[in-house]
């Protein structure tokens, strides 16, 4: 049974396609040195067998930063205390309601770095087939989640600006 404020469920995304998160979604663009933490999504997940950042559905009235850190802990076993948040960017949406799905869905990417600038140990949950620290220059060579591929150049540039 889902909690009353749970964001688990579908909403309308681009062109009315189903996207996960009744109240939107958020993910963590976490950098250590010149590497970003990526998740190879399990086959059974939405857009499975693609690489992206850890993240997921936002709960009712949950701030994007809280959601991204919660999801990263659930999916990677990384503690919020080991992360320094630098900013957040809405990288998709909002989209209108469609086919009886709620609208106004957005995806917010939280930009952060590890507290000491070094890789953190990770433990994958069932939503991940693999977690990997990937050099920023190598990210676009992977089969990326479509929305992440589109947002990556901007996120990389924004991260570089924020860490100055």
Integer-rounded radius of gyration: 15 Å
The structural domain count equals 1
Most strands sheet: 7 strands, mixed
Task: Write the element-wise H/E pattern from the N-terminal end onward.
Answer: EEEEEEHEEEH
> Proportion of β residues?
25-35%
Range of helix content:
10-25%
**CATH class group:** Alpha Beta
Q: Oligomeric status of the shown chains? A: single chain
- CATH topology, by name, is Nucleoside Triphosphate Pyrophosphohydrolase
Give the number of DSSP strands: 9
- Averaged pLDDT: 95
Give the helix tally: 2
> What ranges have pLDDT less than 50 throughout 5 or more consecutive residues?
none
Specify the overall morphology: globular
CATH homologous superfamily (4th level) name: Nucleoside Triphosphate Pyrophosphohydrolase
- What class, by secondary structure content? alpha+beta
Looking at the overall shape, the CATH architecture is Alpha-Beta Complex
User: Span between N and C termini?
Assistant: 45 Å
What does this 3D model show about the protein?
With 164 residues, the chain is an alpha+beta fold. The chain has a single domain (16-162), classed as Nucleoside Triphosphate Pyrophosphohydrolase (Alpha-Beta Complex). The protein is built from 2 helices and 9 strands; from the N terminus they run ββββββαβββα. The protein has helices at 64-76, 146-162; strands at 10-12, 18-20, 25-32, 35-41, 51-52, 55-57, 83-95, 105-114, 128-135. Strands 3, 4, 5, 6, 7, 8 and 9 form a 7-stranded mixed beta sheet that branches. A two-stranded antiparallel ribbon has the order 1-2. The longest helix has 17 residues, at 146-162. The protein is globular, with a radius of gyration of 15 Å. It starts with 9 loop residues before the first strand and ends with a helix. The mean pLDDT is 95. It holds the Pfam family NUDIX. This is NTP pyrophosphohydrolase. Keywords: Hydrolase. InterPro entries: NUDIX_hydrolase-like_dom_sf (IPR015797), NUDIX_hydrolase_dom (IPR000086). Its cofactor is Mg(2+).
